[in-house]
Amino acid sequence: MAHDHDHDHNHAHGQGHGHHHGPTDIDWAEMGPRLESQAELFASLYERAMAWLAQEVTEPGLIVDAGSGPGVVSCLFAETFPGTRIVAVDGSEPLLERARARAERLGVADRFSTIAGELPDVLDELDYPADLLWASRSLHHLGDQRAALTAFAARLAPGGTLALMEGGLPSRYLPRDIGIGRPGLQARIDAVEAEWFTRMRAELPGHVAVTEDWPALLAAAGLKHTRTHTFLLDLPAPASERARGYVVATLSHMRERLTDGLDAEDLATLDRLLDPDDEASLHRRADVFVLEAHTVHTAVRAG
Q1: Which of 117, 131, 165, 279 is most buried, by the most CB atoms less than 10 A from its CB?
Q2: Which positions fall inside the Methyltransferase type domain (predicted)?
Q3: pLDDT of residue 24
Q4: Which pLDDT tens digit goes with each residue over 32-77?
Q5: What phi and psi, each to the nearest 5 degrees, are found at residue 94?
Q6: pLDDT tens string 113-163
């Protein structure tokens, strides 16, 4: 349950899973390097979110990253909150191996630990309640989101904060008219992805449909909603090699997964964009950029 910074509905944009979901049987281990690179690309967004969280979460003893993926964000928490213990929780042991290795490299391993297992039940393995529980695009992978939020809330210390990153806006990587194919390609991909996301949710075990009013759901879990803020990742053209690589990986992933709803012309345009030998490809274009908006909601457990 990495937080694919997938476009998840953006995403799907998880990913840290790579903002685009594939079939529901996602192989997180195979996606590890891509998830890690993408989360690093988003580091500035996460750092701003953490500075915002630090305004109300002061000197936390324990921060839990629920759905940590390869641990990029978990390690940023360790750097942002010196002295705080960090627990990265994820369903994928191979991703947690990457998280532990990263903590070791960054010199924070002495206060960094991991727990492998499926959310939300795995949180019962925590030794202590959390002062901050961070769930970045992991909640929407759980069938009963309302029950999961209640379980998250139960793992908070009195006065503890739940920070939920869900929602935002669809990503943009290219102008509306890119000179090949019919203008508006990304908007049409968004529509196909929205249908995919709905199917993905419906196929989850124990799926319960809920209105995605996150502050209301947080309140229903017994928490007091405090703030909502949207953080922008704005990497203008011309894209860096890392940003360009992220766009190529994301659209490649979508080309594999979202073919059903796109017409032949759009598929042909995607193929040209992904062909390194094509002058119009993402590998060569000067107009590739990354513009994403991710929304964080916070809520506090009564002291």
Answers
A1: 165
A2: 64-162
A3: 44
A4: 888 898 899 999 999 999 999 999 999 999 999 999 999 999 999 9
A5: -60, -35
A6: 999 999 999 999 999 999 999 999 999 999 999 999 999 999 999 999 999
Strands 7-8, 12-12: pairing kind: antiparallel
Distance between terminal CA atoms of the chain? 30
The two structure tokens encoding residue 72: 């990029």
Structure tokens at 247: 């766009």
* C-alpha 58 chain-centroid distance: 24
- For residue 7, give both structure tokens: 């476009």
As a whole number of angstroms, the distance between CA 182 and CA 192 comes to: 16
Q: With the CA atoms of 288, 21, 211 and 121 taken in that order, what torsion angle do they form, in degrees rounded to the nearest 10?
A: -130
- Residue 228 burial (10 A CB sphere; 0-12, 13-18, 19+): middle
Place of tokens 């042991």: 93
Q: Which two tokens stand for residue 35?
A: 């998830």
Asked whether 245 and 37 are in contact (CB, 8 A), the reply is: yes
Pairing of strands 130-136, 62-66: parallel
Question: Is the model's pTM score more than 0.70?
Answer: yes
